[in-house]
């Protein structure tokens, strides 16, 4: 037979906390040919990871396979005994998890963990396994393949660790690899290298793979076929080319249109009368740790940052993790008093700490956090959450306040009845809207948005962005929009500032982002964003600029690791 | 503000059978403590029988003690001391500990550091020894007992509440409240406390049990409630000699202590999940 994986009429049941049994996979059929990579995409809760895990005969706790068969290499994982499954895993099917950092044991060396599969299954002598691991490190383009195994997981970067997790999966020569969102937690610039390494390894070995992701652009680079899932059912199956270019299902179309955001239609700028700056940041320095003798903290995160925000406009802040984006927001909000420099609002200097700022100053500047799950008090109904700033800043009470809560919910397009619910009873998108409505309740001039759409599904995030854009036009708000996702920034911002290692390296109008970036790091960052084009990743080799930037980057990584080891 | 909306929420306050039994036993003892003077068959200090360590009989349901006093009456009156002192002590201890713990977590810095080290030092004094010293020094009275017990158990409660509050304090919703400019009272009462109430209640129950046992220990050593009154611990001590006769006078107060402590744990472990899981 030519299909290495055949899933027939798979049904998976889950038991909810209240004891109700719900079907989360509703009769899925799927096959993967030898050497083929199939991507499962869909929003969270669509069942993509659940299906991928059944290939290993595994379900998450509380779930069970109700019926159907999952045949891998001629054997049904559903009918297997647990002991058979143990022998099966790692040798026939292997798994690469989303968070490699959580999958590695921090107290053992990488080599010990990579060869563990061979040891458990008694596949080969230890020396042979080590030799093989080194070959795999080389195939996955890891730096210093001979010695990297001797390090501990914290001594390598996130992207390297993700490739090492793949090496761990590959050591038992599996026929099928299961990738569970392996690049979701990585920065775009790192993601490229990981994707390339995975693609090369899969192609060289002719292995079949199942690639779970919610990011259509990533999937377009690596998969041969795409399966679109929603609510535990297959919506659309087709070759990558067909799905990306000619989506037939409504949901797939929504996904693809969410990927192409409407470029921001800037209001006609009056060149004659430049808008007054609402916020000015002047040579801001901030960091963590004890103050040194030079008046700077031990770990300086922000180095001499200058920013100007014009009223009614939005400024995007982009950069990879660790570049100081969030620290900048915290410093402006007063959570991290700056070591040097000034923050001015409407021409007046703001004190460094929250406690020293007046209530009026605090009201004008609101911050919205990334994770609505932790940003809303789980024990307070939505109505009470929104009512507090109304009382606190505007001393509203009784009927007037209740009416204002209703108006706020209406403003963020949520039904009024939601005010009786607790945050845990809302969906991710709804929570983020409540989170935003709380900031609006203060009637602020400026809202700092810290990665507010990063935790949301593509389609939901697109709707939230649209809402933000509308509210800006209606209320004349100013946004500072922090994100690592460039398409988000493109959709909502007038100008973009690029942060790298705590410094602002470049600022430009969004319209010029794709073409006119000048700083090499900005160009690397911008060209690293996956395009919805199946040939994009392979075409990168022809881009000399990106290639040299990558080489620089690898050198920088090696240097950073060496420095860490010395200290 | 939440009063208007809480009624609209489903309350979900169902309790399972084990928890209900625990609650029933606690209520029973509270009722006995309140009604003791009315329902006790004999005055507590009066010698009513010529024979000591009598077995159970129709006139003395739980037998008599080493002086020939009615055990049933003495246990009923003892409930007032054991339940009352322990409840007052644990309430005071948890109030102090939890309030300080939450404030330390929210304020942080030097305040937290100094308070924590001070209470750690305090915690290192063995509890029974500390109780002995205080009672020996100041003398035994109800107030002294309650305050002593509260002081002994407040540092533990502080540590526990602080650890929980530090976790909650790191959440974004607390940061949002801080950026809003909220004062410390609001932060502690509205943002932190509702999120740690579940574990704090469990700790309350556990600490109540410790206090009952420590009070019984102090009374057993003769430093607790003074004669002719007696709490349950004192009753066990007085009648210890009766153990060799198999007298009910020593068995029943022991059973009373056991039933109270076990039922408190049964209740706390089986609180309705809406309360119990709030912190998670």
Automatic annotation (TrEMBL), chain A:
<keyword id="KW-0547">Nucleotide-binding</keyword>
<keyword id="KW-0067">ATP-binding</keyword>
<feature type="domain" description="ABC transporter">
    <location>
        <begin position="279"/>
        <end position="526"/>
    </location>
</feature>
<dbReference type="Pfam" id="PF00005">
    <property type="entry name" value="ABC_tran"/>
</dbReference>
<dbReference type="InterPro" id="IPR003593">
    <property type="entry name" value="AAA+_ATPase"/>
</dbReference>
<dbReference type="InterPro" id="IPR050319">
    <property type="entry name" value="ABC_transp_ATP-bind"/>
</dbReference>
<dbReference type="InterPro" id="IPR017871">
    <property type="entry name" value="ABC_transporter-like_CS"/>
</dbReference>
<dbReference type="GO" id="GO:0005886">
    <property type="term" value="C:plasma membrane"/>
</dbReference>
<dbReference type="InterPro" id="IPR013563">
    <property type="entry name" value="Oligopep_ABC_C"/>
</dbReference>
<dbReference type="GO" id="GO:0015833">
    <property type="term" value="P:peptide transport"/>
</dbReference>
<dbReference type="GO" id="GO:0055085">
    <property type="term" value="P:transmembrane transport"/>
</dbReference>
<dbReference type="GO" id="GO:0016887">
    <property type="term" value="F:ATP hydrolysis activity"/>
</dbReference>
<dbReference type="GO" id="GO:0005524">
    <property type="term" value="F:ATP binding"/>
</dbReference>
<feature type="domain" description="ABC transporter">
    <location>
        <begin position="5"/>
        <end position="256"/>
    </location>
</feature>
<protein>
    <submittedName>
        <fullName>ABC transporter ATP-binding protein</fullName>
    </submittedName>
</protein>
<dbReference type="Pfam" id="PF08352">
    <property type="entry name" value="oligo_HPY"/>
</dbReference>
<dbReference type="InterPro" id="IPR027417">
    <property type="entry name" value="P-loop_NTPase"/>
</dbReference>
<dbReference type="InterPro" id="IPR003439">
    <property type="entry name" value="ABC_transporter-like_ATP-bd"/>
</dbReference>
<comment type="similarity">
    <text>Belongs to the ABC transporter superfamily.</text>
</comment>
<keyword id="KW-0813">Transport</keyword>
From TrEMBL, chain B:
<protein>
    <submittedName>
        <fullName>ABC transporter permease</fullName>
    </submittedName>
</protein>
<comment type="similarity">
    <text>Belongs to the binding-protein-dependent transport system permease family.</text>
</comment>
<keyword id="KW-1133">Transmembrane helix</keyword>
<dbReference type="Pfam" id="PF00528">
    <property type="entry name" value="BPD_transp_1"/>
</dbReference>
<dbReference type="GO" id="GO:0005886">
    <property type="term" value="C:plasma membrane"/>
</dbReference>
<feature type="transmembrane region" description="Helical">
    <location>
        <begin position="204"/>
        <end position="225"/>
    </location>
</feature>
<dbReference type="InterPro" id="IPR000515">
    <property type="entry name" value="MetI-like"/>
</dbReference>
<feature type="transmembrane region" description="Helical">
    <location>
        <begin position="245"/>
        <end position="268"/>
    </location>
</feature>
<keyword id="KW-1003">Cell membrane</keyword>
<feature type="domain" description="ABC transmembrane type-1">
    <location>
        <begin position="79"/>
        <end position="268"/>
    </location>
</feature>
<keyword id="KW-0812">Transmembrane</keyword>
<dbReference type="InterPro" id="IPR035906">
    <property type="entry name" value="MetI-like_sf"/>
</dbReference>
<feature type="transmembrane region" description="Helical">
    <location>
        <begin position="81"/>
        <end position="108"/>
    </location>
</feature>
<keyword id="KW-0813">Transport</keyword>
<dbReference type="GO" id="GO:0055085">
    <property type="term" value="P:transmembrane transport"/>
</dbReference>
<feature type="transmembrane region" description="Helical">
    <location>
        <begin position="12"/>
        <end position="40"/>
    </location>
</feature>
<feature type="transmembrane region" description="Helical">
    <location>
        <begin position="128"/>
        <end position="154"/>
    </location>
</feature>
<dbReference type="InterPro" id="IPR050366">
    <property type="entry name" value="BP-dependent_transpt_permease"/>
</dbReference>
<keyword id="KW-0472">Membrane</keyword>
